[in-house]
Amino acid sequence: MDEAPERPTPDLAAAAKRLASGGVVAFPTETVYGLGADALNPEAVDRVFRLKARPSRNPLIVHVTGPAMAATVTSEWPTAAERLARAFWPGPLTLVLPKHERVPGNVAGGGPTVAVRAPDHPIALALLFEAATPLVGPSANLSGAVSPTCADHVRAAFSAEDVLVLDGGPCRVGIESTVIDLTSPTPRILRPGIIGHARLAAVLGTPVEQHHHRDHDDSSAAPPSPGLLKHHYAPKTPALLIDVEELEDHLEDALDDGVRVVVISHHLAVQVDDPHELIRMPGFALPYASALYDALRRADDLAAVRILIERPPTQAETDEDTAIWHAVHERLRRATAPR
Ligand code: TXA
Ligand code: MG
What we know:
This protein has helices at residues 12-20, 42-52, 67-73, 79-88, 122-131, 151-158, 197-204, 247-257, 285-301, 319-335; strands at residues 24-27, 34-38, 61-63, 93-98, 113-117, 135-136, 163-165, 178-181, 188-191, 239-242, 261-265, 277-280, 306-310.
């Protein structure tokens, strides 16, 4: 991840041509890779739902170049949207607004709203300009699986499919964008990301409803954001969140049971002996977030009986880092939800 490998410059003209004919192009963003298709072409959008095996009620994010394109897919562009877009776009913030009628119903999962964001990645922005159309871009993984943070993750999921993958290297942020609903009386965070409550409230100058942990299982009628299902971001191996003081006991229990575990830890002092495995994590909030999904995938690949994830901090020196840890904890809570 440290060295920038030589990557061919993606052929954006070919990618745009594919999008124009209803095809699917996976593209890098600063958060995770997206599975792109023309947001104004309902058949292309359907293709994305099918590729991901995504429930049709779970709406897709529409990626735009900026406020001007966002205004073409929304029927209202309130001051709050303008303020947030000016402050944070291009960047990892998604705004939920009333949907313009030109946006096909399947994009919105049949609902009256649409989620929009301008991604902060040169390849994503260049693709949007070249295609000259808004693009749906759900995370480029099968529904319920861990989001992809490099091109190989995407290729692994869709190698058998007709998906063009644009390689932009590893994602800087590594966890999905903050989603804020601007259609409720008080703006409300639906999904935490690295842009936290304090920064949003400061820019808006009005209260913002925090994201609350709510468990939604797939049977619940209408979660506030349909994507917020309990088992999102889940590795295949059962995973457990533990405190560092509990680690020794867990490792001994595993030995007694004759099973192998993988430990994911950000503590430099932690040592793990054979046959167990250790995946070391950075101790800082943003590097931790950007390494998280790759760590979960590598842990899965080690084919252990369980994954023990050492609980990261919940507080940091700055509001920014505290918000990132909060967003990380939200992913860890889902990754370790009992199933
Ligand atoms: O960082 C990201 O947002 C990435 C990159 C590729 O842009 N995309 C992403 O998309 O995470 P996806 O589809 O995996 O997650 C979109 C989330 C889901 O939780 C979905 O339910 C929610 O946003 N969402 C989409 N449209 C919505 C709407 N109209 N109202 C409420 N929630 C919505
Ligand atoms: Mg997703």
